[in-house]
Amino acid sequence: MASRSADPSSSRHGNSSSSIDAVSLAIIEQLQEDGRRPYAAIGKAVGLSEAAVRQRVQKLLDQGVMQIVAVTDPLTVGFRRQAMVGINVEGDLDPVAEALTAMAECEYVVMTAGSFDLMVEVVCEDDDHLLEVINKRIRALPGVRSTESFVYLKLKKQTYMWGTR
Q: Please, are residues 69 and 75 in contact by the beta-carbon 8 Å criterion?
C-alpha cells in the first residue's frame, strides 16, 4: 500500500499546505514509505504515541488530505496499454471533465492551461481497448473538438512522494 496525498491547493477540501504541521507531514512520509506501517512504529519515528498517530491519520483521511491505497503495476494486473490523452474542448470544460471522470479507464483528469484543455491518463487492457475508449467514447463526448494521444512505451518513474517534499 502507498499513501497518496491530495492536492494541497484543492478547493474541494479547502486545504492549504500551511494547515498541515511538520508532524503530520512526517506521518504522511512514513505512510508513503509503507502504507501498512504500524501506528506504534510511526509514533516512535515522529515522537508521538500510537493513539496520537491513529487520531492524526484519521483526521488526515477525513479531511481528504491523503488516502491510503494499494498502488499496482498496471501490467501485472492485465492492463498492457497506458496513454496520456490531450483533449481540446469547445465551450465549457466541466461537462466533458465530469463525463471523463465517470469512465473507469480514466485514472486522472486534469484541466490545464496550454495546448490542451484537458489531460487524461487512460489505462486499458490492450490497443483495441484504447482505440475503443478514445474513438468511441472520448471523441463522442459533446464538446470534444480534438484529441492527441501519447501512448506509453515504458514507465520509468511513478511515485507518490510529492506530498511531503
A: no
b/e per residue, 47-81, with b = 16+ CB within 10 A? ebeeebbeebbeebeeeebbeeeeeeebeeeebeb
Residues 127, 143: Cα–Cα separation, whole Å: 25
Q: Is 52 left (phi over 0), alpha (psi -120 to 50) or beta?
A: alpha
pTM for the structure as a whole: 0.72
Q: Is 146 helix (H, G, I), strand (E, B) or coil?
A: strand
Residues counted in the chain: 165
| Whole-angstrom distance, CA of residue 134 vs CA of residue 148 | 9
Say how far apart CA 61 and CA 65 lie, in whole Å: 6
Instruction: List the beta bridge partners of residue 84.
Output: 121, 150
Residue ranges in the chain whose pLDDT is less than 70: 1-18, 161-165
Nearest CA-CA partner of 163 in 63, 57, 23, 65: 65
